[in-house]
Design brief:
Keywords: ATP-binding, Cytoplasm, Glycolysis, Kinase, Membrane, Mitochondrion, Nucleotide-binding, Repeat, Transferase. It contains 32 helices and 29 strands. It is of the alpha/beta class.
């Protein structure tokens, strides 16, 4: 019971029985009487000491396996001598279990003084004597086994060593010599609760072999129905040949299926094979070495799945699909992961010991890829095989190892696992007896026999109430006739040995938890550990001590321990169920995304159709109905280097308007010098009258001329007007329609150059020579052509997309004349508006088009340009979420918001330099709480959509360059494409994929791509310069 201030009130027993139901053995005659008389005489401590009173609380009640460890514990027990901190710095084994808490009904005021009587004083002296006797024995054992009592400082050092060993095991360079092998399991995902199906699980790893049928139905609270059968694995099969072993497994499986009448079903099988294996995929396991007394020949170095399949095929009476091979530790994690999706660590502390956890794939050098996670089977039993634990191993550990089947191997396991703890205690007892410290020096044949003292005996002796009684019985069975203090000593030996085990396992698990926390980049880790194993489950003190030590070693982790039920068997079924779920999801995802995969033949067909549409746009007879309009720009030449002079350029294409002064100098050293100023266009001007809009533009020009001090001479001007126009000459462009939020009246159907000239006249301040009305794509081509004379194609892939190129005048039927060249503004965004791309458009393309401002228009642009790619991705993500593939099936409000997934996020997410944590952070900004698997799928979707865009763009460009080559009757064409646009510039893969596509589809063209700098402004000035040059040439 608890007293004031968090203390626990405890009364010492009033009789030898101590209220515990356990008889306190009387001391042997003569052995301790002098001490008793001495202590009784020197009773200066009186009744206030050993008799009772308020004491600080001890360990409290034992924790359950599923209790969440969240607070650092109080120091437990009394400080012992000779141990340097004992079983850890805080808890000191063992407690005085002869002093149980009193029940509240027996003594409501446990701390109130009670008048002593003669019988009470006698009882107190007896209890005091017993406590002092026990203390003496404990101190003696503590001193004798000093080396087994590990301080927290030592445990933290072991954590550091193990963390280093883990890193070595994950490294390609150090793995061959690493003792902790860190084996990839190819289990990439824990259960998400949606698993369902009928599975068989095989569990081979001990003296018996278990087969389970596991039926999973996720509809009703994750219902799992299991039936199992255990088959013996005889010694002659364990030590026989590999074919005998797997024939036996196949025979047992056949029997199991026969009894349940499921031989005709080809059920998926999960195989728990609890031995160290090398895996390169989930359904393959190459045995590294046998352990646990298995020695079947011809199996080490072989794939156990192939051996089992061979045995099944040899029988021929049933078929089985072995989907996954797992280690029992992985099975434990997966079983618990089905109940708790935060479970990412598996731990076994039983006959053997091992741990697994979910590691970031980018840290696993032995597996290709760096996205996602994979379960790593640490095989930590071999920790220390390289000598790294020599400073904490004792003579007893070395003796255990010498007498084992695998000397020098699994040294950590031999210090902590259930197979060895009983034997460790026996060796200690033998040595102490030989030195006369126990059993009055008596040594019996039973005590000298290996295996006569088991770990189950350790558990029995350490029980709270009947521990000393059990010790008496067990030691009597060994023939050593123990005294009371012998029993106390043996109990304390057991405690020190099991406590060391719990501490060491806490240290290694602590290293794993720290690694998980570091991987996640979080200051505090919250996770669940799935646990199995007889030592953890059945030892009365083990789990409590282990949890306490772990809390001290990793105070920044909140850990829930979840006890596994049918861990390794059910776990194999769960791995199989997850593999099946992932395979089914993968199939459906691949089926959906397959519509975005374009083969070379499909791309050649797109190229062919683009070429046909180009011809329709160039011909007078078909031009009006053509989707790709092929508009003449009246730019008849690219710069030849003789251009010279000062030119004004206007750039109108959005809410900002730019005025530029471009100084072009010819000669040996050609230069282009630019000055510009940006002006805003208010919304009321954008949507007012045409006169107001062009008056505002002229006002901005006037301000710029004053700013530059050049108002006076009549300067030539080029007008980049980035709206659809029908040009009738270089200096005339009739506006077809406003876009981008402009709605100024009295402009559509009018020549924008005339509207600009009229506004200049109204101002009566200056005059300008409007030489050219320019499309931004043509401006891009001209800018690059000034730097590279072979540039005859312009391409923009940004918010929108368009292309232009130099066409033979004889092919441009919309313009009189058939000599020379003319730049054609393709307006290729409308490719497919006539339905010619419907066979490659997906349901997501149709959705994006349906909800756009111009449904049914610009269909090609909507498949390749930056304005739409993010929206295509968003629609796919919604569909995948509805199907339960993403975001746990929960469609968030942000995901429903049109336009939230901007194309810039595609560029960021697809960056090779970006780890998944950063992808998750981007999704978090969008209000999308993603798991690691979600992030991988989102990245995959982004990649598929942007790749298709680049390929389609490449197919269109291949049609253009091949037309130029064929126009000129060349076997091989060298040509440069001037490119601008944010998608091309900023996306990490778009340009590379597009270039590759052009190369594949137009093998007779050597195509170079040149990035345009300030294409639309500088280009307008260059077109103006070329126009002035040609005009001068014509007049002369």
């Amino acid at each position: 019971m608890r007293g004031m201030g968090g203390f626990r009130c405890v009364a010492r027993p009033l009789s030898g029985a101590g209220g515990s139901g356990r008889r306190v053995p009387a001391p042997r005659p003569g052995r301790h009487r002098p001490a008793l008389q001495r202590r009784a005489a020197a009773n200066g401590r009186g009744g206030g000491g050993p008799a009772g009173g308020c004491h600080p609380p001890g360990d409290g009640s034992a924790e359950t396996g599923s209790a969440r460890a969240v607070a650092a514990p109080q120091a437990e027990g009394r400080s012992r001598g000779g141990g340097g901190g004992g079983g850890g710095a805080a808890e000191q084994p063992p407690e005085d279990h002869s002093s149980p808490r009193l029940r509240r009904t027996e003594r409501p005021h446990a701390c109130r003084p009670v008048p002593p009587t003669a019988s009470m004083i006698a009882a107190q002296l007896l209890a005091y004597y017993f406590t002092e006797l026990k203390d003496d024995q404990v101190k003696k054992i503590d001193k004798y086994l000093y080396a087994m009592r590990l301080s927290d400082e030592t445990l933290i050092d072991i954590m550091t060593r193990f963390k280093k060993e883990m890193k070595n095991g994950l490294s390609r360079d150090f793995n061959p010599t690493a003792t902790v092998k860190m084996l990839p399991t190819f289990v990439r995902s824990i259960p998400d609760g949606s698993e369902k199906g009928d599975f068989i699980a095989l569990d081979l790893g001990g003296s018996s072999f278990r087969i389970l049928r596991v039926q999973v139905n996720h509809e009703k609270n994750q219902n799992v129905h299991m039936e199992s059968e255990v088959y013996d694995t005889p010694e002659n099969i364990v030590h026989g040949s590999g074919s005998q072993l797997f024939d036996h497994v196949a025979e047992c499986l056949g029997d199991f299926m026969e009894k349940r009448k499921i031989k005709d079903k080809k059920l998926p099988v999960g195989f728990t094979f609890s031995f160290p294996c090398q895996q390169s995929k989930i359904d393959e396991a190459i045995l590294i070495t046998w352990t646990k007394r298995f020695k079947a020949s011809g199996v080490e170095g072989a794939d156990v799945v192939k051996l089992l399949n061979k045995a099944i095929k040899k029988r021929g009476d049933y078929d089985a699909n072995i989907v996954a091979v797992v280690n029992d530790t992985v099975g434990t994690m997966m079983t618990c992961g089905y109940d708790d999706q935060q479970c990412e660590v598996g731990l076994i502390i039983g006959t053997g010991t091992n741990a697994c956890y979910m590691e970031e794939l980018r840290h696993i050098d032995l597996v290709e890829g760096d996205e996602g996670r994979m379960c790593i089977n640490t095989e930590w039993g071999a920790f220390g095989d390289d000598g790294s634990l020599e400073d904490i191993r004792t003579e007893f550990d070395r003796e255990i190892d010498r007498g084992s089947l695998n000397p020098g191997k699994q040294l950590f396991e031999k210090m902590v696992s259930g197979m060895y703890l009983g034997e460790l205690v026996r060796l200690i007892l033998v040595k102490m007896a030989k030195e006369g410290l126990l059993f009055e020096g008596r040594i019996t044949p039973e005590l000298l026999t290996r295996g006569k003292f088991n770990t189950s005996d350790v558990s029995a002796i350490e029980k709270n109430k009947e521990g000393l009684h059990n010790a008496k019985e067990i030691l009597t069975r060994l023939g050593v006739e123990p005294s009371d203090d012998d029993c106390v000593s043996v109990q304390h030996v057991c405690t020190i040995v099991s406590f060391r085990s719990a501490n060491l396992v806490a240290a290694t698990l602590g290293a794993i938890l720290n690694r998980l926390r570091d991987n996640k980049g979080t200051p505090r880790l919250r996770t669940t550990v799935g646990v199995d194993g007889s030592l953890y489950k059945t030892h009365p003190q083990y789990s409590r001590r282990f949890h306490k030590t772990l809390r001290r070693l990793v105070p920044d982790s909140d850990v829930r321990f979840l006890l596994s039920e049918s861990g390794s068997g059910k776990g194999a079924a769960m791995v199989t169920a997850v593999a099946y779920r992932l395979a089914e999801q993968h199939r459906q995802i691949e089926e959906t995304l397959a519509h975005f995969h374009l083969t070379k033949d499909m791309l050649l067909e797109v190229k062919k159709r683009m070429r046909a549409e180009m011809e329709l746009g160039l011909r007078k007879q078909t031009h009006n109905n053509a989707a790709v309009k092929m508009l003449p720009s009246f730019v008849r030449s690219t710069p030849d280097g003789t251009e010279n002079g000062d030119f004004l350029a206007l750039d109108l294409g959005g809410t900002n308007f730019r005025v530029l002064l471009v100084k072009i100098r010819s000669g040996k050293k050609r230069t282009v010098e630019m000055h510009n100023k940006i002006y805003a266009i208010p919304i009321e001007i954008m949507q007012g009258t045409g006169e107001e809009l062009f008056d505002h533009i002229v006002s901005c020009i006037s301000d710029f001329l004053d700013y530059m001090g050049i108002k006076g001479p009549r300067m030539p001007l080029g007008f980049t007007f980035s709206f659809p126009c029908q040009q009738t000459s270089l200096d005339a462009g009739i506006l077809i329609t406003w876009t981008k939020g402009f709605k100024a009246t009295d402009c559509v159907g009018h020549d924008v150059a005339t509207l600009l000239r009229d506004a200049i006249k109204r101002r009566e301040e200056f005059d300008l020579d409007v030489v050219a009305v320019v499309n931004d794509t043509v401006g891009t081509m001209m800018t690059c052509a000034y730097e590279e004379p072979t540039c005859e194609v312009g391409l923009i892939v940004g918010t929108g997309s368009n292309a232009c190129y130099m066409e033979e005048m004889k092919n441009v039927e919309m313009v009189e004349g058939d000599r020379g060249l003319m730049c054609i503004n393709m307006e290729w965004g409308a490719f497919g508006d006539n339905g010619c791309l419907d066979d490659i458009r997906t349901q997501y393309d149709r959705l994006v088009d349906e909800y756009s401002l111009n449904a049914g228009k610009q269909r090609y642009e909507k498949m390749i340009s930056g304005m739409y790619l993010g929206e295509i991705v968003r629609n796919i993500l919604i569909d995948f979420t509805k199907k339960g593939f993403l975001f746990r099936g929960q469609i968030s409000e942000p995901l429903k918001t049109r336009g939230i997934f901007e194309t810039k996020f595609l560029s960021q997410i697809e960056s090779d330099r970006l780890a998944l944590l950063q992808v998750r952070a981007i999704l978090q900004q969008l209000g999308l709480n993603s798991t690691c698997d979600d992030s991988i799928l989102v990245k995959t979707v982004c990649g598929v959509v942007s790749r298709r865009a680049a390929q389609l763009c490449g197919a269109g460009m291949a049609a253009v360059v091949d037309k130029i080559r064929e126009n000129r009757g060349l076997d091989r064409l060298n040509v440069t494409v001037g490119v601008d646009g944010t998608l091309y510039k900023l996306h990490p893969h778009f340009s590379r994929i597009m270039h590759q596509t052009v190369k594949e589809l137009s093998p007779k063209c050597n195509v170079s791509f040149l990035l345009s700098e300030d294409g639309s402004g500088k280009g307008a000035a260059l077109i103006t310069a070329v126009g002035v040059r040609l005009r001068t040439e014509a007049s002369s």
